[in-house]
Amino acid sequence: MSFFERLKTEASVEWRAYTEHPFTEGLADGSLTEAAFRHYLVQDYLFLIEFARAYALAVYKSPRLADMREAAAGLSAILDVEMNLHVKLCAGWGLSPDDLERAPPAVEMLAYTRYVLDAGMRGDLLALKVALAPCVIGYAEIATRLASKPNAVAATNPYHVWIAEYAGAPYQEVAANARTHLDGLADRYVTPAREAELIAIFKEATRLEADFWEMGWRAGQR
């Protein structure tokens, strides 16, 4: 069993609560309220900015040149590709760049991103990548599952663009590369004693990701 699979197995309760949250089910069947999705989109924009900082930290924390290049590529992908795609998606929902820039950060967004940055500051590159994994790898798994549902990627589903973007080959490759790199770091640096610490980081990061969905879900219930 790979290191990432061991993390998922140990955090099975948290992982299921995150990847099968009602917010994600609402994306698949189109039942999610527009208010919930707009709130999520705004906070996810702010989230991406903080994740870019985490990848910049990963460059500094990298023990090898190859690790630095991997982190730098991730940073570039966020700043030069994913941010632009997100702004375009937001525009389709009536959210301008000014709307995104002026939005106050939600507590849930700050909680997760600060946790990731703190894990990286206190620990090494492996600890940081474990904290990042629920988002980077989890989104690919969630989108793949959602895309397999009837009519999830049909034009009649208002959320089909989001699902198709994360279920599509470009993002799936990003997630696969992140998983490969995480497993490679684990092969180099994990010891039996250390694994318990990394599982704890993964569980907490996954729980905070579920809270991010919950934030959007609650916004749609107001």
UniProtKB/TrEMBL annotation:
<comment type="function">
    <text>Catalyzes an amino-pyrimidine hydrolysis reaction at the C5' of the pyrimidine moiety of thiamine compounds, a reaction that is part of a thiamine salvage pathway.</text>
</comment>
<dbReference type="Pfam" id="PF03070">
    <property type="entry name" value="TENA_THI-4"/>
</dbReference>
<dbReference type="InterPro" id="IPR050967">
    <property type="entry name" value="Thiamine_Salvage_TenA"/>
</dbReference>
<dbReference type="GO" id="GO:0050334">
    <property type="term" value="F:thiaminase activity"/>
</dbReference>
<keyword id="KW-0378">Hydrolase</keyword>
<feature type="domain" description="Thiaminase-2/PQQC">
    <location>
        <begin position="15"/>
        <end position="218"/>
    </location>
</feature>
<dbReference type="GO" id="GO:0009229">
    <property type="term" value="P:thiamine diphosphate biosynthetic process"/>
</dbReference>
<dbReference type="GO" id="GO:0009228">
    <property type="term" value="P:thiamine biosynthetic process"/>
</dbReference>
<dbReference type="InterPro" id="IPR004305">
    <property type="entry name" value="Thiaminase-2/PQQC"/>
</dbReference>
<comment type="similarity">
    <text>Belongs to the TenA family.</text>
</comment>
<dbReference type="GO" id="GO:0005829">
    <property type="term" value="C:cytosol"/>
</dbReference>
<dbReference type="InterPro" id="IPR027574">
    <property type="entry name" value="Thiaminase_II"/>
</dbReference>
<protein>
    <recommendedName>
        <fullName>Aminopyrimidine aminohydrolase</fullName>
        <ecNumber>3.5.99.2</ecNumber>
    </recommendedName>
</protein>
<dbReference type="InterPro" id="IPR016084">
    <property type="entry name" value="Haem_Oase-like_multi-hlx"/>
</dbReference>
<comment type="pathway">
    <text>Cofactor biosynthesis; thiamine diphosphate biosynthesis.</text>
</comment>
<keyword id="KW-0784">Thiamine biosynthesis</keyword>
